[in-house]
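Researcher: Let's try something more involved. This one mixes different molecule types, so please make sure each is placed in the same coordinate frame as the others.
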Amino acid sequence: MAQYSAQLDEVFVALADPTRREVIRRLGRGPLSVSDLGGAFPMTLPSFMKHIRTLESTGLIRTVKSGRVRTCVLNRERLAVVDSWLAEQRRIWEERTDRLESFVTDPKENHP
Amino acid sequence: MAQYSAQLDEVFVALADPTRREVIRRLGRGPLSVSDLGGAFPMTLPSFMKHIRTLESTGLIRTVKSGRVRTCVLNRERLAVVDSWLAEQRRIWEERTDRLESFVTDPKENHP
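Model: All components are placed in one shared frame. Result:
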């Protein structure tokens, strides 16, 4: 549970930046080299590499070096922790709605 | 689009903290006073209030003061920006899968 929470912290921090979200979006279409990716962003390569390293350390992307080319690959499974968290919230909301409905339908029976 | 991106920044930052996620989870069951909520967390009230203010300024919760009691209410709609963003990523992944499938099925027709 603590590990899941720490993963959520990391992933949400990684997603709280427009450059990193755009990298994830572009890699959703397929792997790209760092230079092809970085060319699309108005920043220096060292600044861009910081974002790449954040994404890599969070596990949202992997990078593979072949010769002089470093290729970035999206790791979709990592985004699943966000899905799980949202699904948990929805479950809580639905339970609440069910409780309210049962109260409205038959207040005496369900809430003596 | 810039506004949507700024909203995502704010919401992801707000969600990147276990205390704030736990507040959202508890408020999913229904409104609670700040004192009822805060009692569950091992921190001082001023520290807890910082989290409440972050959640409020992001629009993830609303607070209403009545007499001496401040009540917190979850604003579920605000979490929808996260859903939208995830849905956009999935759409991109599916388009990619469709392209790969059409290439495998008939490479000449689709990629002359």
